[in-house]
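Let us work through a complete example step by step.
Step 1: write down the sequence.
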Amino acid sequence: MEHVAARPQFTVASPTLPPGPRLPGVLQGLRYARDPVGFFTRLHRRHGNVFSLSFPYFGRIVYVADPGIVKQVFTGDPALFHAGEANATVLEPTLGPSSVLTLDEDEHLRQRKLLLPPFHGESVSRYGELIREITERDIKSWPIGRPFALRPHTQRITLAVILRAVFGVRDEVRFKRASALVGEFARRADLITQVPLLRRDLGRFSPWSRFKRARAALDEFIYEEVTARRAEEGGTEHDDVLSLLLRAEHDDGTPMSDRELRDELVTVVGAGHETTATALAWALERVLRTPRVLARLRASIKAGEDDYLDATIKETLRARPVIIDVARKLTARAEIGGYELPAGTFVLPAIAALHHRADLYPDPDEFRPERFLDGKVDHYAWIPFGGGVRRCIGAAFAQYEMRVVLRAILERAELSAPDSRPERVKIRNVTLAPGAGCRVVLERPL
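Step 2: predict the structure and record it as tokens.
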């Protein structure tokens, strides 16, 4: 965990907003939707390391794309930089008020302390055999000799990992029920997270009403699982994440409440299922269109090495970040990058812009895992998981899962890309996914 630094001080500050396009928010939103990564990289190149723009519902937002300024935001006083409050504007209807992502300050640290152990070290590596088994089972369902979208399969793999390793679901009937509920919940949450203005009840078939029904159905399943696990004789011997959280205690000796467990489990579903599935799809989309990388990756895997595989994962998350930015909301006036910003301003490290800076990553549009072999990753120039005390708790789990799944796929399947052109980036829920779902051809199983 990174240290929490004092609020940075500047000697000179401008009271004006940073530069940026002054187009209507709706038009900005359309440009962003058409090309999310290119949109932010162009803004950075035109306006510099600190820029602003308007979005519908959110108003004027300030973006930063410089490692030094990103460090100030990530290590600044958590009482000044509220990540939970910023996240809640989009995520609270889905994750809930007790999620580690929607809490701030002491409440956030209190919850984070309980969640860290199940997602680090030995607790992560114990799931390797399960992850590989799930992946190999799914590979057997892939069609041979014709193009198909791989992302639905990586979604199926990562969801199965979540339900088995996190929820500890062992009964096949409940597993199928949970898979259907999570799928419906994700579909109904898509519009609600992207367009908060739709959060109003306009009748039974309105997006908000459909979302609330899907949420209630998933909640019912989760509460059933929590209740059954609490009552299960010997349930504390299980090593799934839910069992570990049921055994966890706050500093005052109290266990997590059912509501806390619900919100954290839904958070894990959202943050550990959709995002990892999308990152896996991007990794194969990029690798299959870069023959040099594919050949070296296969050779390193055959040799039982992990270094180049790990570098490929890091390069994927640089070149195709799954999340476009990470937000903070200022609780008081603050100086950021030479600009004096009022309380209530949203400040967002712009991941895509930062990851495509040519001075940090020469030839940024080239897919080159080698750039992560020669030196240590700068914590504030490579930020797919955020940073500081708000760095994604599941980062180690996600990278480990990607390593196991990619190794299994490349060992068991001869894949090719049906089209040499890169797939465009498309917004799906809160992630940036391959526009065609990572179309591949399984030439033959291995």
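Step 3: interpret the result. Confidence is low (pLDDT under 50) at residues 1-12.
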